Q: What sequence folds into this?
């Protein structure tokens, strides 16, 4: 521990948001520095690399106005920490944890490093408590459980926003079912949103009337803060979940903006680019966020993550959705075709998957017949979808009666089961609707 | 030896400490984080550090332990759960809570646990290096203890012992203890290696029947996300007919490990009836744990696997996923500013992988026993693209290629092993073995299965052009049987009672389906109606 802050005015180079400082005597990896501009204003930065007495600093803001001779760099001897207290709830902050709701910062009860520490795998409790979202395609066929990370894979122009808003509205059911007692809380992290999108979410959050904390980085806010906002959000989530016993739902939108920020910063650092210019460590980087979801044995509380990922060019093999899919426990995939046919939510259940569904459904959790109904719906819909290709070639009249039955089933499934104009359904209603559909087509036996 | 830190870049630190050797183990910084020297140069020694370097300061002290990274080998490994550096995760959690804090050190084996020791040597006997001098009953496995030095036994313990106490004294002063250290990057030696001769029974019909694996062989399991790599590896870890399983969760999900731990504590080994965990060692270095430890994790695991192989056990090492290991290697390489090869991977990726694969095999051990070490490694190709460097490097070394198919997975056909693209180089020998040991019809039925699946594919193409109406009755029958083969035989749901099949049951199932097909063909030839035949078959 150093006794006082060190001040250096030995900046030797400034390049985009990077600063090279020379002759630094003692410095830590990840140490926070304050950079004082000639006009006296300060911006924060973080130590990226140390080589002998030369230090590379990443700035958390614009380098505009900095100059080599008159800039002072103050080394603070601490890594980035988040202030913590339950009074973080009902508050809004920017990507650097500064209040943006006009109120002063709350009084912290604790501080924690924003990178967190990995959960010991042997301390994890297996996620198995059902969360009802109100959407049949999720609750019935891709069930979400507490402690899971389940992204929504969207495409530009698809209503992921409306889906998330609806889930937020209905997510209170977690509270009703929660055994842990700490109650429910939402941590909302907005990354690179336009003001218009942000305003939409703001209304949704206010409408849900449950506890929340929001971290908002808008499209014109500093890119580096886009990389920090989710870490602040998750550090708060860990505090609320594992110290205060709450079931925390973390909604992050849009992770594609996060990855693009990562690429931008990596390029500025002249790092070697990987696939499509994204850095080679993007998998580990994303995992360091997503793996903070979970439950811990012997403690109440949970962190469930629902990130939104917009697939560039509608391409699921693009590195962003691809690496996300390799880390998360499934994915909810939206389809442009369903959307164009006016179906909401436009969830394509075939590529969608919840990997933790097995544990979350069945007697005592949802209903004894849940698995059977889900399997049948899936099987017959998949068959119907396969046959659509054939229909294009040979025409409906060239198909057998059985095949035509499957075609009709697939259509009805999309228009009646997937489509939810009537608002939310309970899981019971979802399963009943599925069963009724199967019966109508005579598909209700295995 | 002492020195200090002069530079930090990602997971690597530069040290001013003269006299360090390559691969020496160091403790770096005030938090005493584990590291390993990976480069020596004019700028100093560079060590890869096994924990997050965040908060580490330049000028902080570093000390050298003067020896390479080792694992501790001895009784108590079975049932343990380690991180990539062999730190016992449950013990670390009990001591420091549910989050892993940097700098926590913990002994890998319970030093005070009492074991029943049976000496195999008496005072006056000579003992050679690598020779067993005693044995311990470890959860149903006969755990041989090997001498790490030669000499003549002066005194020998027997009965209740602990790892801390010397078990044998040698004339002239040396002692033998139950546990020993072994450097993870150096393969444990063997006398002779054999070509694999016996199958590694996985309990998965599609593998055992169509693409059989061998004891001492290697297999790669590439597939995009969600194609079932982890579920398949875990199923094999549960059901494989082997003595010991070492499972490495290498850069994958924490919840998966929790799930597996819970299951393995309650399920039993179908071959012996003992609790699965009693034959299993787990190494869990999840994706959010330090990358450098991820790089080490597969070596930690394979060294423990070799140790049991040396006792004459059949050991299976499963790693999920080797791609995450390769990425860790890439991260370290890029922190070292090495010249990158394809997609940024270091140019030595393929040779490192090849030497890792080479640690598998069926061997005669140093003490004359026959043991085997088999490997099944999952591969996670970016975007499912099999031309990427890690997949290609594995392809050159692996004995079996079990390709998981996104199309099958989307149709919920699991295990999603593609029956056209996959292959096993052990096929001929193992099919001959099954023909001899299970049923002479094995090879014929298998050929017939392949043929039917291929014909189905052709017919499907035809049907897409002319419509199903354009097919002959015999073609319809083929389509029908092939569909049944896919759905009832190749498919195996891990979550129900069909999860595991013995070779005998596998063969019976195939025979039943194919015999029905042959009978139906004969009836068609006699002029019976297809609809009648199919109705009666159902
Ligand atoms: N044999 C099986 N039986 C039933 N379901 C299966 C089987 N294999 C896979 N699945 C289903 O597929 C899902 C994904 O499988 P898994 O987690 O093994 O994929 P993966 O290939 O390991 O993906 P990733 O690369 O992202 O880790 C499982 O959660 C399960 O729902
Ligand atoms: Mg997996």
A:
């Amino acid at each position: 521990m150093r006794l006082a802050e060190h001040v250096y005015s030995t900046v030797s180079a400034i390049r985009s948001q990077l600063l090279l400082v020379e002759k630094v005597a003692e410095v830590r990896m990840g140490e926070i520095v304050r950079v004082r501009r000639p006009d006296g204003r300060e911006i924060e930065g973080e130590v990226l690399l140390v080589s002998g007495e030369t230090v590379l600093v990443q700035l958390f803001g614009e380098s505009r106005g900095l100059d080599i001779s008159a800039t002072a760099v103050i080394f603070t001897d601490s890594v980035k920490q988040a202030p913590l207290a339950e009074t973080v709830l009902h508050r809004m902050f920017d990507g650097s944890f500064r209040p943006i709701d006009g109120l002063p910062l709350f009084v912290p009860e604790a501080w924690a490093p924003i990178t967190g520490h990995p959960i010991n795998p042997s301390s994890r409790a297996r996620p198995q408590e059902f969360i009802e979202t109100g959407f049949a395609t999720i609750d019935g066929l891709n069930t979400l459980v507490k402690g899971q990370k389940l992204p929504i894979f969207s495409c530009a122009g698809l209503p992921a926003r409306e889906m998330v808003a609806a889930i937020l509205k209905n997510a209170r059911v977690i509270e009703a079912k929660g055994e842990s007692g700490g109650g429910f809380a939402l941590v909302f992290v907005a990354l690179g949103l336009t003001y218009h999108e942000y305003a939409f979410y703001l209304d949704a959050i206010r409408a849900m009337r449950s506890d929340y904390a929001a971290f908002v980085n808008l499209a014109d806010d500093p890119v580096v803060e886009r990389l920090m906002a989710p870490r602040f959000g998750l550090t708060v989530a860990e505090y609320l979940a594992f110290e205060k016993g709450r079931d925390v739902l973390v909604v992050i939108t849009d992770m594609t903006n996060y990855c693009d920020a990562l690429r931008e910063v990596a390029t500025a650092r002249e790092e070697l680019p990987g696939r499509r210019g994204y850095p080679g460590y993007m998998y580990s980087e994303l995992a360091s966020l997503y793996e903070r979801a979970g439950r811990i044995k012997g403690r109440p509380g949970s962190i469930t993550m629902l990130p939104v990922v917009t697939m560039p060019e509608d391409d699921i093999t693009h590195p962003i959705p691809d690496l996300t899919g390799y880390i998360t426990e499934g994915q909810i995939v939206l389809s442009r075709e369903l959307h164009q046919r006016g179906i909401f939510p436009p969830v394509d259940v075939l590529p969608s998957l919840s990997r933790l569904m097995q544990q979350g459904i069945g007697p005592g959790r949802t209903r004894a017949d849940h698995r059977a109904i889900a399997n049948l719906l899936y099987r017959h819909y998949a068959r119907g979808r396969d046959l659509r290709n054939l229909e294009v070639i040979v025409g409906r009249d060239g198909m057998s009666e059985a095949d035509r039955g499957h075609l009709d089933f697939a259509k009805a499934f999309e228009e009646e089961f997937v489509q939810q104009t009537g608002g939310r359904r309970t899981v019971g209603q979802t399963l009943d609707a599925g069963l009724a559909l199967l019966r109508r087509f005579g598909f209700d036996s295995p | 030896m002492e020195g200090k830190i002069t530079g930090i870049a990602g997971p690597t630190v530069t040290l001013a400490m003269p006299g360090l050797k390559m691969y020496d183990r160091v403790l770096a910084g005030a938090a005493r984080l584990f590291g390993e020297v990976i480069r020596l140069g004019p700028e100093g020694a560079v060590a890869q550090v096994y924990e997050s370097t965040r908060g580490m300061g330049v000028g902080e002290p570093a000390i050298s332990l003067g020896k390479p990274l080792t694992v501790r080998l001895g009784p108590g490994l079975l049932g343990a759960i380690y991180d990539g550096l062999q730190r016992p995760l449950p013990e670390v959690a009990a001591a420091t809570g549910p989050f892993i804090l940097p700098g926590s050190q913990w002994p890998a084996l319970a030093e005070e646990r009492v074991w029943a020791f049976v000496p195999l040597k008496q005072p006056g006997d000579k003992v050679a290096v690598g020779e067993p001098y005693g044995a311990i009953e470890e959860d149903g496995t006969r755990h041989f203890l090997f001498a790490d030095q030669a000499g003549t036994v002066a005194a020998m313990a027997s009965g209740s012992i602990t790892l801390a106490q010397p078990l044998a004294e040698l004339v002239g002063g040396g002692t033998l203890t139950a546990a020993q250290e072994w450097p993870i990057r150096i393969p444990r030696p063997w006398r002779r290696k054999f070509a694999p001769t016996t199958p590694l029974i996985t309990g998965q019909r599609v593998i055992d029947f169509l693409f059989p694996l061998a004891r001492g062989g290697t297999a790669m399991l590439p597939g995009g996300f969600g194609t079932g790599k982890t579920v398949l590896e875990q199923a094999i870890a549960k059901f494989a007919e082997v003595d010991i399983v070492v499972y490495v969760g290498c850069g994958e999900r924490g919840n998966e490990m929790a799930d597996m731990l819970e299951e393995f504590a309650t399920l039993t080994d179908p071959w012996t009836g003992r609790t699965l965990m009693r034959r299993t060692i787990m190494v869990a270095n999840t994706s959010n744990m330090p990358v450098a430890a991820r790089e080490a994790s597969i070596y930690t695991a394979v060294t423990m696997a070799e140790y049991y192989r040396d006792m004459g056990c059949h050991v299976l090492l499963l790693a999920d996923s080797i791609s995450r290991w390769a990425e860790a290697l890439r991260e370290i390489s890029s922190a070292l500013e090495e010249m990158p090869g394809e997609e940024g991977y270091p140019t030595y990726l393929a040779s490192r992988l090849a030497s890792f694969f080479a640690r598998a095999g069926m061997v005669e051990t140093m003490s004359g026993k026959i043991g085997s070490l088999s490997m099944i490694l999952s591969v996670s190709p970016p975007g499912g693209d099999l031309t990427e460097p890690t997949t290609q490097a594995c392809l050159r070394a692996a004995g079996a290629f079990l390709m998981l198919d996104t199309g099958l997975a989307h149709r919920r056909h699991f295990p999603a092993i593609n029956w056209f693209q996959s292959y096993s180089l052990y096929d001929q020998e193992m099919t001959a073995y099954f023909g001899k040991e299970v049923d002479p019809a094995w090879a014929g039925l298998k050929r017939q299965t392949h043929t039917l699946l291929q014909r189905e594919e052709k017919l499907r193409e035809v049907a897409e052009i002319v419509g199903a109406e354009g097919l002959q009755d015999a073609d319809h029958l083929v389509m029908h049987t092939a569909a049944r083969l896919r759905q009832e035989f190749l498919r195996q749901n891990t979550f129900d009672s069909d999860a595991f099949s013995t070779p005998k049951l596998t063969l019976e199932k195939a025979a039943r389906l194919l015999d029905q097909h042959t009978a139906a063909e004969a009836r068609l030839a006699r002029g019976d109606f297809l609809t009648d035949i199919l109705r009666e078959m159902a």
Q: What stands out?
A: The pocket of adenosine-5'-triphosphate (ligand 1) is lined by residues A 325-326, 353, 355; B 223, 225-232, 252, 380, 414-415, 492-495 (CB under 6 Å). Chain A has three domains: 6-75, 84-359, 370-440. Residues 370-394 of chain A form the longest helix (25 residues).
